[in-house]
Amino acid sequence: MASEHIENKLKLLPDLPGCYIMKNKQNQIIYIGKAKNLKNRVRSYFKSSHTGKTAQLVSEIADYDYIVTKTNKESLLLEINLIQKHQPHYNIKLKHGTMYPYLKITNEEDPQLIITSDVKNDGGYYFGPYPNVHAATGTRDLLQKTYPLRKCSKNEKRACFYYHIGQCIGCCDHHVSKEEYAAQIKRIRRFLNGDVKTIKNDLKAKMAEAAENLNYERAAEYRDQISYIEETVEPQNIMSKQYNNRDVFAFYMDKGWISIQVFMLRQFSIIKRDSALFPCFDAPEEELTSYIVQFYKQKNHTLPKEILVPAKLDNELIAESLDVSVATPKRGDKRKMLDMAKRNARIAHDEKFRLLEMKEQQTVGAVKTLSEALNLDYLKRIESFDHSNIQGTHPVSAMVVYEDGKPNKKLYRKYHIKTVKGSNEYLTTQEVIRRRYGRILREGGALPNLILMDGGAIEVNAAKEVLEDELNIAIPVAGMVKDDKHKTANLIFGDNLDIVPLEPTSPAFHLLQRIQEEVHRFAITFHRKVRSKHSFTSKLDDIPGVGPKTRTKVMRHFKTLKAIREGGVSEIQSLGIPEKVAIEIHKTAWDGQKDNPYQKGD
C-alpha cells in the first residue's frame, strides 16, 4: 500500500509525457522509466497488483520525481541518458543487455569507430545515445564506407580485406599521419553532429543512378543508409546539436515562493536535472541570478559552453562573474528548451502547494470537521489513552497528544498501573485519568480540548466519572470503537454515547484512525519493553549470589539477556562479579536458547 505522501502526489500527476524517477528510503534512484502519460503510468505502480521483480521494486519505492517533456520521443531520449547517468539498480536488472548504444571514436594511435554502451572519460568522442543497436550499426557501417578509419586489428602484417574494399584507412598497409586521421575524424564528427545534407544528397543521387541502371539491390542499400541517417543523426528536439554543452535555467514565482529548474545538457540530451524551491524575498530575477552564480561557485558544477536564462536577468553580470556565455533565446530549439524548464518549474511549484493544501486538509481541516461533528469549538489539542496487558500481567497505559491534527511526541506519556490488579479496563482508566489531570490541576498545566479513549462505553464512562465527580473539570470525552478486525469503526460521544456520523472516507475519520493506531502502537511498545525488563529481572533474582546491587550492575551494563549471551563470562566478571556467579548469570541467559552451550552433550 502506498504511503500517505505518495498517495497525495499521485493525485497531482499531470496527463503529460515525461520521465519518472523512483527513489528508496535513502533517496537513492532505483528505477527510471518513461511514459506517454505520467499520471496513468506512475499510478499503475501503486494501484495495480504486481509479482516478481516489479513487486519487489514497488515495495522499495519511498518517493518519486518526474520531468515533463513535450513529446513521447523526448521522454524516450531523456530516459536513455538518465539511465546512463544514474545506473539505477532495477534498470540494470530489468534491462540487462539492452542499454542504449553510443558511437565512439577511440582515443589511440590508430583510432576506430566502434559501438559501445559504456561511456567513460577516456578522451574518446562519443555520439548518441541511439534508439537501438540496429540503427547505430547502420550509421557506423555507412561511415566506414564513406569516411573509413581503422577497421582491422593492429596485428595485421599486410593490407587487410577491408582496406581493399575501401572500409579501412589503411594503417595495416602504410603509415597514416595524424593530420590525415584528424581530417577524417573532423568529417565524421561533423556528420554525427547533424551536418548530413551533403552525404544525404550524394546517397540520393547514387540511389537514383543505381535504380536507373536496374541495380535494385545497390539502390536498396543506399535507401537503407539514408534511413539510418534520418533515424539516428538528423537533429531532433531533445538531441539537437543546439543542445550540446549548455545549461538551462528557468523559474516560476507565486505565493512568495520561487521554483527553479536547471537542465544540464551534454551529449545532445539532458544528463542531469537540478531543482530548488524556497521563499523569495527579492525580485525573482535577482534571486535566480544569485542562484546561478552560487550553483557554479558553491556546488562546484562544471561550467558549460553556454548558459540559457529567461528574460530580464542581467546576462552581462552573470557572464562576467562566471566567464561564460549567457543568452536568452527568443525562438528556435533553445527557446523550446527554456520553455520546457519553465514548465517544469511551474509544475514543481504547483505540486508543492497542492501537497501543502492536502496536508492542511488532513490535519487542521480534519480537526475542524471533527469539531463540527461533535458540535465543539476547534479541538486544537487532543489527548488519547490506551491500556495494554497480557492476562492482567504488567499492566501499563500510554497517552499520545495531537495538536492541530499532528502528533507532538514530546508530550507523549507512559504510565505503570499501580493500584489495579489484573485486567480491569474501568479501574485502569480511572487511575490514569486521575493521575494525568490531577497533576495538571496541581501544576497549572494546559488541559486538552478533547480526550479520546481507545475503547467503548466502559472506558468513556470511567474517564467522565473521574473528571466530573472527583476533579470537577469539564473536558469532552469520546470513545474510538474498533471492529472485529481491530480497526477503527465508530466514534461514540455525548450523554447517551451515540455514534457520531462520520464518513469513512472523510479526513476527520482518517485522523481518528491515525490517532487510534498511534496510541495503540505507543502502548503496546511500552508494554513489551516492561514485560522484557521484568523477565530479565526475574531471571536474575533466581540466581544464588545475585543480590539487588549485582542485579542493578548487570541490568545497567547489559540491558538485555541477548547482550549477556554475547558478552560472555569475562565481560560479566569485569563488573566485579565473582567467576562462579558470572558463570551462573551467563548460563541463565542461555536458558531456552536453541544453541545453548551449557546443554548436556554440547
Compact overview of the structure:
It is built from 20 helices and 19 strands. It is α+β, with helices and mostly antiparallel strands and 602 residues long.
Mind explaining what this structure looks like?
This protein is of the alpha+beta class and 602 residues long. It is 47% helix and 18% strand. Strands 12, 13, 14, 15, 16, 17, 18 and 19 form an 8-stranded mixed sheet that branches. Strands 9-8-7-10-11 form a 5-stranded mixed sheet. α6 packs across α10, α13 (332-362) packs parallel to α14 and α19 (561-573) packs antiparallel against α20 (579-590). The protein folds into 5 domains: 4-94, GIY-YIG endonuclease (3-Layer(aba) Sandwich); 102-239, no CATH class; 241-359, archaeoglobus fulgidus dsm 4304 fold (2-Layer Sandwich); 369-524, Nucleotidyltransferase, domain 5; 542-590, DNA polymerase, domain 1.
Name its key features.
602 residues, alpha+beta, archaeoglobus fulgidus dsm 4304 fold, 5 domains, 8-stranded mixed β-sheet, elongated, UvrABC system protein C, DNA binding, excinuclease ABC activity, DNA excision
